[in-house]
DNA sequence: ACTGAAAGATAGTAGGC
DNA sequence: GCCTACTATCTTTCAGT
């Protein structure tokens, strides 16, 4: 981690690019009232220093048949680093697993699972997730509706 | 929802752009062995038909001081549509709330909260979230480590 | 649907303030 | 750190298959 700090111009650029990664330098230079070359150099630095990790297209999941989102809370029966690491190694390989976080509290991991429907989730649960070693329990919760889903941090 | 289906070329383009939204048409045309104009037209259609919702820059949250991610499970004390809608309306306004889903099961909503640290979460909890109307309980779980966090659906 | 090529716009670089 | 000006590269359009 470098000691470099970002200023208000950097923050404004990050704010804009979090909303739309395809903005041209020209558009950003117009909004921020700086020259195109300045914007170009700032964005280069923000990437180089790791503030911007990557730019991605966000798809409409219903159009590509991911109608069901589940959160699955997993509890393991032992917490040696070997067991934890093995679970993580195996679970991230499943294409249904969009996210996996190790958590504090009454369970060990929370997974975000995307499937086409309940049948597909059931199949994932029975034939993939529940087959992994050292699982004590899995509790599943399903998304009824998406009120807010944002990738942009307020800056 | 239109009746239009996508073919293998569309799927390959979506796969590529989910990983890197800044790929040039030229690069995609090289990978897919199609002409630049073909790629250009395909991407235009994928956006127009709503497969691609938007393109965004993904930031390194630790560089911008969002070190703590919490999942907060919220239970309300009544489930009239008015109460549900009011909660949703209010909760999405908090900048700490990255995501809000209404859920099946033993609680009503799950929130993903991003703050700088536990003090900031505590402040959010006490002075923002817990002040909303009709809340019965809030249970908070904190991310210890991020094993996988992907925005790209396998296609 | 796809292609190649032209025209217009943008990214990226260099030199100066 | 920011600017103008220049060149390389890319996007976008279109006539042709």
Automatic annotation (TrEMBL), chains A, B:
One of its GO terms (molecular function) is sequence-specific DNA binding. GO terms for cellular component: cytosol. GO terms for biological process: regulation of DNA-templated transcription; response to amino acid. Keywords: DNA-binding, Transcription, Transcription regulation. The keyword Metal-binding does not apply. The keyword Mitochondrion does not apply. Residues 6-67 form the HTH asnC-type domain. SMART domains: HTH_ASNC. It holds the Pfam family AsnC_trans_reg. PANTHER family: LEUCINE-RESPONSIVE REGULATORY PROTEIN, TRANSCRIPTIONAL REGULATOR AZLB. This is Lrp/AsnC family transcriptional regulator. It comes from Mucilaginibacter rubeus. The lineage of its organism: Bacteria, Pseudomonadati, Bacteroidota, Sphingobacteriia, Sphingobacteriales.
């Amino acid at each position: 981690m470098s000691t470099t700090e970002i200023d208000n111009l950097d923050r404004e650029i990050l704010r804009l690019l979090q909303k739309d990664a395809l903005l041209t330098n020209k558009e950003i230079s117009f909004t921020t009232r700086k020259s195109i070359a300045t914007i170009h150099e700032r964005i280069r630095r923000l990437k180089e220093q790791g503030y911007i990790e990557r730019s991605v297209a966000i798809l409409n999941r219903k159009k590509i048949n991911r109608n069901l989102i589940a959160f699955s809370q997993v509890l393991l029966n032992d917490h040696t680093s070997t067991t934890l690491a093995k679970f993580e190694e195996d679970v991230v390989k499943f294409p249904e697993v969009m996210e996996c976080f190790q958590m504090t509290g009454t369970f060990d991991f929370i997974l975000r699972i995307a499937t086409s429907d309940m049948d597909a989730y059931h199949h994932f649960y029975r034939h993939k997730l529940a087959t992994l070693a050292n699982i004590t329990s899995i509790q599943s919760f399903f998304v009824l509706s998406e009120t807010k889903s944002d990738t942009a941090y307020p800056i």
